[in-house]
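Minutes, project huddle
Topic: does the predicted pose make sense with 2-acetamido-2-deoxy-beta-D-glucopyranose bound?
PN asked that the exact inputs be recorded in the minutes so nobody has to dig through chat later. Recorded below.
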Amino acid sequence: MASSFTNPIVLGLLSATMILVSIATCMSTADQSPLEFEAKALLESGWWSGYHNISRRCKWPGISCNAAGSITEMILSDAGYNCSEVHYRFGELKFSSFPNLVVLDLSDCQLGGNIPPEIADLSTLKYLGLSSCDLSGELPLSLGNLTNLEFLDISSNSIHGSIPPQLGRLEKLVSLNLSWTGLTGPIPPSLGTLTNLRHLQLSGNKFDEGPIPQNFRNLTALVTLSLAQCGIVGPIPSGLGQLTNLEILGLYGNKINGSIPPEIGLLSNLLELHLHGNMLVGSIPITLYNLTNLKYFLLAINHLDGSIPQDIENLKNLRILSLTDNNFTGHIPLVLCRLTRLEFIDIGLNQFSGSIPSCFGNLSNLNYLSLRSNLLEGSIPQEIGNLEKLTLVDLSQNSLNGSIPSQIGNLSRLTYLDLSFNQLSGHVPVLSATKLHIVDVENGCYKISPDSFQGNKGLSPCITSSKTSTANKSKIPLYIKIFLPIVIFSTFSILCCLIFSRFKNSRVGIQQTKNGDICSIWNYDGKIAYEDIIAATEDFDFRYCIGVGGYGSVYRAQLPCGKVVALKKLHRSEAENPAFDKSFRNEIKFLTEIRHRNIVKLHGFCLHRRSMFLIYEYMEKGVYSTT
Ligand SMILES: *[C@@H]1O[C@H](CO)[C@@H](O)[C@H](O)[C@H]1NC(C)=O
Ligand SMILES: *[C@@H]1O[C@H](CO)[C@@H](O)[C@H](O)[C@H]1NC(C)=O
Ligand SMILES: *[C@@H]1O[C@H](CO)[C@@H](O)[C@H](O)[C@H]1NC(C)=O
Ligand SMILES: *[C@@H]1O[C@H](CO)[C@@H](O)[C@H](O)[C@H]1NC(C)=O
Ligand SMILES: *[C@@H]1O[C@H](CO)[C@@H](O)[C@H](O)[C@H]1NC(C)=O
Ligand SMILES: *[C@@H]1O[C@H](CO)[C@@H](O)[C@H](O)[C@H]1NC(C)=O
Ligand SMILES: *[C@@H]1O[C@H](CO)[C@@H](O)[C@H](O)[C@H]1NC(C)=O
Ligand SMILES: *[C@@H]1O[C@H](CO)[C@@H](O)[C@H](O)[C@H]1NC(C)=O
Ligand SMILES: *[C@@H]1O[C@H](CO)[C@@H](O)[C@H](O)[C@H]1NC(C)=O
Ligand SMILES: *[C@@H]1O[C@H](CO)[C@@H](O)[C@H](O)[C@H]1NC(C)=O
Ligand SMILES: *[C@@H]1O[C@H](CO)[C@@H](O)[C@H](O)[C@H]1NC(C)=O
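Predicted holo structure (tokens), as shared on screen:
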């Protein structure tokens, strides 16, 4: 009896309690728990190990919250953390605990490992920065579920596999950067549906020797399209002419064949055209001379032919003109002299004929002039001596005659002068440059100690070998080959920089260190000095060595700015060999001309009394040729 009476009461009380409890639970989940979940997830991530007062988390560096105190931004890259030193583990952040996160920037943090598929739980995310995070594995398909993303940067990692076609679902994307990640497979055509894209960067990958997808013509908002060194084979689609907002078109270092479509001339906003290092044939379409905003015009290392018409006069903003290593013919047009913004002219390794226009003296901004290996004749115009900014003049391997204008001796910034293999006669002018370290003259003079050029007269310090002293110089055409290698690198640095800096906001820094040695590096803050390299490698300790070869050893070094680079250090004995200069020069030339698909980016170089080295982008399984 009693039990039959009490049971309903007990049951009623029980169920009432349960209802109350569940209401309370509901209320607490709605009011407090999300924030508590965030707090808990932050603590558990261990990413802010130096910070303990969780109630102040919205003030922790790199964290921003909304008015309700929920986290909206995590920007570790710039928050003063030792992001590159500490190994944060990606998976330790419980993504589902951050329902309001809009910005997640972990660039330059050494996360390691995969991108966890759970990242798709961050459904409000608009900005995901994972550049240089030491990531590996494949890209999770779930990335395609982050449909609010506007900015996605996974550049400079060692990802495997292909681009998930699911990325084509990220309709709001404005910027997609997957460059230098080692991706393979084809470029998914689904990317051609992302019509809000303004920046698409896929350089430095190993796509399957396929073409540029035809439907990229639909990406009409594009401002930047970078598909350099990524294994593209096939023609330039004429449809790219529809991308009229394009400012940068980077297609260098592929196997692009066929001719340049005339439609490229419709890209009236184009500032930079990088087509060098491909297999293009035919002549330059006349429409390209309508690109009046063009600053960089790089067509080097192709199989282009034809001559350069008067129309080039329209390219009033041109700074860089590189046509090297093609089959161009005809005269150098005089109208080139009206392009007074030109800083760099390299039209070497072609079949240009006629003489060097004396009006080149009007190109007052010129600092690099290479006309080497053409069919040029006549004399060297003395007006070249007016070009005070010149640092490099290479007129070698032509049929120039007459004497060397003495005005060349007044070019105080000139650091590289090559006039070899011409029919020049007369005297070598007094060179006023003070930084000449090695002079290698073809007819037997070579290797001068560094300081003996200060205040020198002519090339008198030349040590004439017995072989040439027997020759009658007055009858023999004067073959002069002057290599001034120490500072040629600063000139080549300009070339490198121009070629390499386009897709990164790089700053050039050439630093004179205490010892007066030159250290130059790009993409960093310009403050990297020899000492930093020594510190990073513990004076080239062999523990940091990752390869040894023909004329150098390769080291892995982490710079103070956090970047990991590869250093190719030249064997000292090699550095003292006169032939070293040539191979070093060839190497830089090779790297700057980017003929090769496996080549890695050259960031800079250091020349120091004790050692000389090149600084490359570090790639986990990169090929660092040491021969
Ligand atoms: C944590 O921060 C809160 C709010 O600023 C402050 O009131 C509290 O005293 C701090 N606790 C500790 C242990 O510092
Ligand atoms: C970074 O790490 C170094 C030691 O590796 C430490 O001395 C320094 O305090 C750390 N800096 C910050 C901001 O945590
Ligand atoms: C993406 O979201 C859909 C539905 O929200 C889900 O069914 C699917 O499994 C998700 N895909 C991935 C790869 O996470
Ligand atoms: C990737 O590309 C975007 C868009 O051009 C750019 O803002 C970003 O800085 C690039 N990332 C790196 C690491 O250069
Ligand atoms: C995109 O390009 C493809 C092929 O180039 C074309 O068939 C299609 O109609 C285009 N789509 C839009 C929306 O313009
Ligand atoms: C471009 O190269 C591909 C692959 O070698 C070849 O099939 C195609 O015919 C070439 N196109 C032209 C225009 O030369
Ligand atoms: C260059 O542009 C002008 C007007 O913008 C146009 O009339 C002309 O046909 C174009 N020339 C070429 C060669 O495309
Ligand atoms: C230039 O043309 C010649 C003959 O037509 C050819 O043998 C050579 O390979 C071409 N050079 C380049 C760089 O295309
Ligand atoms: C070079 O400049 C001079 C003086 O400024 C001018 O008279 C001459 O026409 C210019 N030459 C060319 C080819 O533009
Ligand atoms: C230079 O060569 C040209 C022919 O190419 C000739 O007319 C001229 O006289 C030569 N000048 C000198 C100084 O030898
Ligand atoms: C070189 O410069 C000096 C001083 O500026 C000047 O006196 C001399 O005439 C110049 N020489 C030539 C060949 O232009």
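Observations noted during the meeting:
- The two ends are 99 Å apart (CA to CA).
- The helical segments are 2-31, 33-45, 466-469, 485-500, 530-536, 572-575, 578-593.
No decisions taken; revisit at the next huddle.
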